[in-house]
Write a structure and sequence with these properties.
Elements: H1 2-36
């Protein structure tokens, strides 16, 4: 049971990191688009 909890918390952490990276990428793209105009 503990192992499963650990797996889920790790998975949740990875999802959060992926989301943060995705959001950062979007912001970066928006800035680049603004700079190009």
């Amino acid at each position: 049971m503990l192992l499963l909890d650990l797996f889920f918390s790790l998975n949740h952490c990875l999802l959060n990191l992926t989301f943060l990276a995705f959001a950062a990428q979007l912001k970066c793209n928006e800035r680049l688009l603004c700079l190009q105009k």
